[in-house]
Amino acid sequence: xxxxxxxxxxEPIYNQIYFQIKNQIISGELKExxxxxxxxGLAKDLRISFITTKRAYEELEKDGFIYTLPSKGxxxxxxxxxxxREENLKKIEDHIDSIAKLASSxxxxxxxxxxxxxxxxxxxx
Length: 125
Hints:
Elements (H helix, E strand, L loop, with lengths): L12 H15 L11 H8 L3 H13 L3 E4 L3 E4 L4 H25 L4 H14 L2
Antiparallel strand pairs: 1-2
């Protein structure tokens, strides 16, 4: 597992940890039931407070990405297909929002956008 902290990003460190681990789980880089580094171990490796790492792990567990076994550690949770679907739908909505803004700046019509999407989807069938 790779986690890199960017002190210049302005994003809270626990958020950076959360999103990097979450993305590695969603992409399959981290496998179901794979053990994660201990909270203290990761904090030591990243040279940050264990409280920061603990918060990221707590958020990951709350959102269903990891589970904790007392005295054993934290593990990647089995993939919840509905959760992954919601994650992907959110990404699609974000992309559509960007497309709508770009299309507006180019004076494209709704039909132009629909045609473009249909053309792209034909190539992916």
